[in-house]
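for the recovery benchmark. tokens below, seq after
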């Protein structure tokens, strides 16, 4: 709109501009011939087909006059634009109060609770538990090790190497579950147990017994211990491997519950593992928060009615959007974040009165005999 108004003003002024030429005998007003003008940016350009005489006669015409008139027309067309663009003080309230953004509100407090002891426990940290996955959350995870272990096992057993999409599908599953349901190598329980043990042995040999704790994991676990929050680890690795890894990183005395592959029948995305951890912690599922690193962990946690925090260790942030909260490291979490995630309505805070259901009136069955009005 600004360009149109400037173009209109300059075209009207540039068609027959006036200029004054001083002479010794008299002063007269002359009119330049019709100009073919073109607006380029803020300059008025004459066409090339004008004669040199015309250009010399029009050279005295002040160009700043056209600019000033065009700016005046623009201000008249859009009044008040200059004031808005200078101060950026737009009227109206955006609804954001900077004083309310920090610290975040504590949703764990419920003033409607009449029992002060229950309210104090709710304000504390004894009403929620944290369930960690091991690899990719507590310690560094190399997904290429597991893929190489499956390829080596397939070569030893004379099987065709599984493609990449199959290897991605069996991430997080128990070895027996992956062998029988996805790879379909055997249905014999003894054979499945032998293949699963051999696969773990190959993977441990490739790892070489080296474990590195992730940055921020030790600090966050110490924070949970200081607030007396129960900590559990759920993994599809054998218990022997988990205990060896915990001793290597110095966390063998920091965990309350450990659930390994021997304790469950199925792995992720089945929620059996997380439900069993909640039973051992003596918590309802709504009061448990799962910390995983894959979409299968998010799916299993939500199926178990638990909140999930995803750690972007081997997947980018945009692929973990289904989680309730996504972080890069565990030290980005706080106790307030955990309380807000676990602040949901649950049966332990209900009044205990059953909901009344309205009984629907029985309607008489519709007759299948049609009535002809013309008959009567």
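predicted aa per position
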């Amino acid at each position: 709109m600004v360009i149109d108004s400037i173009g209109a003003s300059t075209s009207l002024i540039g068609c027959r501009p006036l200029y004054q030429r001083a002479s010794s005998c008299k002063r007269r007003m002359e009119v330049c011939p019709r100009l073919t003008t073109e607006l380029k940016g803020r300059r008025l350009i004459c066409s090339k087909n004008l004669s040199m005489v015309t250009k010399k006669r029009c050279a005295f015409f002040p160009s700043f006059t056209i600019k000033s008139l065009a700016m005046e027309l623009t201000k008249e067309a859009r009044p008040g634009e200059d004031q808005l663009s200078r101060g950026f003080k737009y009227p109206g309230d955006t609804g954001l109060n900077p004083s309310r953004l920090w610290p975040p509100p504590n949703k764990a407090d419920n003033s409607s609770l009449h029992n002060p002891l229950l309210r104090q426990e709710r304000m504390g940290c004894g009403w929620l538990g944290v369930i960690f996955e091991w690899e990719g959350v507590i310690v560094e995870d190399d997904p290429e090790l597991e893929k190489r272990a499956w390829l080596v096992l397939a070569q030893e057993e004379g099987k065709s190497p599984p493609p990449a999409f199959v290897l991605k599908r069996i991430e997080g599953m128990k070895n027996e579950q992956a062998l029988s349901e996805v790879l379909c190598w055997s249905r014999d329980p003894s054979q499945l147990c032998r293949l699963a043990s051999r696969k773990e042995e190959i993977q441990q040999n490739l790892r070489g017994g080296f474990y590195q704790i992730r940055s921020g994991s030790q600090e966050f676990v110490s924070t949970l211990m200081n607030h007396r929050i129960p900590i559990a680890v759920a993994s599809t690795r054998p218990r022997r491997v988990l205990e060896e890894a915990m001793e290597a990183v110095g966390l063998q005395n920091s965990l309350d519950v450990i659930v390994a592959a021997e304790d469950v029948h199925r792995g992720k995305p089945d929620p059996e593992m997380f439900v069993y951890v909640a039973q051992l912690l003596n918590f309802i599922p709504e009061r448990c928060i799962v910390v995983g690193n894959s979409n299968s962990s998010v799916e299993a946690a939500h199926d178990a009615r638990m909140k999930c925090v995803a750690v972007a260790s081997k997947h980018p942030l945009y692929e973990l959007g289904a989680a309730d909260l996504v972080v890069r490291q565990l030290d980005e979490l706080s106790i307030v974040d955990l309380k807000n995630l676990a602040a949901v309505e649950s049966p332990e805070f209900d009044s205990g009165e059953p909901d009344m259901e309205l009984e629907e009136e029985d309607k008489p069955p519709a007759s299948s005999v049609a009535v002809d009005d013309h008959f009567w």
